[in-house]
Amino acid sequence: MMKNVALKFVTALAVLGAPLTASAKIYLDSVKDPLPLVEVSIVIPRGANNSDLKNFAAASIVDFVLESGTKARTKQELNDQLSAFGANMSMSIGTEFSYLNVSFPYLENKNYEDLFKILTEAFREPRFDKATFELAKKKLRSATLSMLDNDMSLARSMVWDWQFFKAYGRRPMTIEDIDTVALSEVQAFYNDKLLAAPDAWVGLVSPPQVKDKFAGLVAALLKKQGAVSEGEHLAPMINDRKAPKKVAPSKTFLVIDKKDRTQNVFAINTLVTSEISASNEFDFRFANYLLIGARFGSVFYDVIRHQNGFSYNVTPFDNRLMGVPSFGFVTNPVAARAIDAYKTIGDLVENYYENSAEGFGKFDDKFWTSRLQSYKYSEIMGRSSEVKKLMRRKLVVLGEISPAYYKSEPNSWKVDKKDVLSTFTGLYDKSQVVAAAIGDGASLESLVKLNFPGYQVIKIPYQDTISSKIYK
């Protein structure tokens, strides 16, 4: 009996679409869901930074090439044929990983053989011709230029990009790279790096009967796909990450000059240059939860939005950059109240980041107890269904949470104030801190120097944020 053949098929079909080496592994993690929908979430451990690319545009342009059809089918033909099955597929290339997603409704009496052939073709045989490539370059240029109009996104990306540049010695993709990238570079990245990745992780959500429905259909297709390992894969897929450069802790503030804004945008992120051990992962995460992760119940959200009404939006940064722990937040205070807003934000950064003992010392026992309980509830909710658990296992694969943290039981967690404070303080003291503000450059520069002493201030015209000229 061919147990779970269909699951293997959906995995092998959508992941690589090319023969793998004998040692290749496709880690298949599947859960049953009664809804008549098949959803495939695929992670390939190849991205722009771990593929030896000279030009990051070669990776960024792949998304636009894949949406342009295949060697045999135009974009319209491909979309029409996928639409006949209600199917959607998308792919994105990240710094370390590439993500491919496929979904389609499952109907008991429908034949899906043609859909599988179309999906196979879409990923094995993208349309790498000159006309498609030139159009993809235009789309990428438009997408890059559009970043200049979204201040929240621009502030986030500038902080990340600057930290990436300083920590790893490589600048991100810029507008100039689009003009110099060659079609051969894109093809080489896709065929030699992405499709040839040795491993892949696949999360599959589907009705219980799917595996038996497609068992006989796909047996032949699996012969070239390498080994499939079914079950939970609780380990990061990338273990040979390039460590950040051993640079001294630093504090940089990017003032992005963009006049006539009704709102400023402020962003700050801390890139930790020492790894978090399994023993202090909870302390790090809980400390960040207290300050910004709890959203409505967090200190920064409460002070900036509820107590002062400076901003409607106060959101946390992600907790990882290239596998390295990080923490910070983004907010958009109204420009008319910038003087008071930047003083308040500066005080928050000083009291809770710079001098953590002072800020955390203000929390009484009731606060610690209530926030720990809400943190436990949020973690329990994140594990409340098999599908949610699958998505958490995906975070383990990406290296965003440790296997030990995934396996830990929230109800067993206890908080030690001293441990939380010493972990948070120790990590911050060894960090690269980058902040950014978008608004009128002259007024922001004076506010930054007044409220963020000790930061190196760099002023950048907003048009230059997508240019290579700022990375010297």
Description:
The structure is a single chain. With 472 residues, this protein is of the alpha/beta class. It folds into two domains: 216 residues, Cytochrome Bc1 Complex, Chain A, domain 1 (2-Layer Sandwich); 221 residues, 2-Layer Sandwich (Cytochrome Bc1 Complex, Chain A, domain 1), CATH 3.30.830.10. The protein contains 19 helices and 13 strands. Strands 7, 8, 9, 10, 11, 12 and 13 form a seven-stranded mixed β-sheet that branches. A hairpin with a 2-residue loop joins strand 10 and strand 11. The protein starts with a helix and ends in an 11-residue tail after the last strand.
Tell me how many strands there are: 13
- Fraction of residues in helices? 40-55%
Supply the CATH superfamily name of the largest domain: Metalloenzyme, LuxS/M16 peptidase-like
CATH fold-type name of the largest domain: Cytochrome Bc1 Complex, Chain A, domain 1
Count of the domains: 2
Largest sheet: 7 strands, mixed
Low-confidence stretches: 1-22, 215-225
User: Rg to the nearest angstrom?
Assistant: 24 Å
N- to C-terminal separation?
61 Å
Range of strand content: 15-25%
Task: Enumerate how many helices there are, as a single number.
Answer: 19
Quaternary form = single chain
CATH class of the largest domain: Alpha Beta
Shape: globular
Structural class: alpha/beta
Architecture of the largest domain, according to CATH?
2-Layer Sandwich
Mean pLDDT: 85
